[in-house]
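Researcher: Batch entry, complex prediction.
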Amino acid sequence: MSQVFFDNIQQHIHLSEEEKELLLSYFKTKKIRKRQFLLEEGDVCKHSAFVLSGCLRCYFIDENGFEHILQFAVEDWWITDMMSIITQNPSRLNIDALEESEILLIKREDQTELLEKIPQLEKYFRIKTESGLAHIQSRLLENLSLPAKERYLNLMKKYPRIVEKVPQKQIASYLGITPEFLSKVRKELVKN
Amino acid sequence: MSQVFFDNIQQHIHLSEEEKELLLSYFKTKKIRKRQFLLEEGDVCKHSAFVLSGCLRCYFIDENGFEHILQFAVEDWWITDMMSIITQNPSRLNIDALEESEILLIKREDQTELLEKIPQLEKYFRIKTESGLAHIQSRLLENLSLPAKERYLNLMKKYPRIVEKVPQKQIASYLGITPEFLSKVRKELVKN
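Model: Structure tokens for the complex:
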């Protein structure tokens, strides 16, 4: 299972067998059931999670009770609440599983220690964070500028695995539209 | 002038005098006039910029010709188009100066080389990128959930230097409201 993780890391840096062993000793493997929470609003975010299998989502609930999904994470993606984990303030977000999932968890303080022991990993996390920043920047830009149909097409193009895997209701929430409207958009796309 | 930069770095890592000198040799100092562009939509983003003085903004123009500001950068902040710089695809964003500014510029390929020469800097850039990610995550969350008044109050609380420095028209564009509506919000706040 951890091969998924090593493959992801070794796209960017090379680790020796000893380093891999040391690295893994800082992580805990965890199975989470569908709908089980990894983080609940009001709690301080302690962990970053790497998804080995399954699918997680990060969302918040607005004052009218509507869910807004910020991010999905499928196999070989990272997920955390970056604001809460770096400030250690209570989170405004929830992270839960959309299906039974297996994840690798690391505590913030353990990550800091690990980075001291294997400084090369700084490069890996820097690159992963840059990529996360780029994606959320695009998401904000699309949210502010593109109509729902275009946003859906972009999601399909950029993250086909997510559109395949994630229930339509969740995709609609991510796009900020109703499931009915998404269904209309999909029918239109099939017709054209 | 570069003291601002070293102070920012040395909050996170320690550099020797030789390393500081090497570091600076990778940057170009540039003065940019008010309204001058650092990046224009359609160009590939080549540089990251650290602001020594002044104020820059990153924005895009939607199909109706409206400007949407994604980020301001005042003294000791970084600014770039992360998506364009890592993918080397043309940018959908513009970066320009709101007032005469002085910046330090580094090309992406020079940054890569610099990181090989001073690997400690990986930690600095990882932390800066984490912080950038956290802020844009909060911005997306607030955009989706909070009314304009709350978003303005949060901006004042979190970035008082920006609210002080940046013209009201720009603040309104950042908040996604008209300048008239912002003026109404401000009057209400003064009254209470």
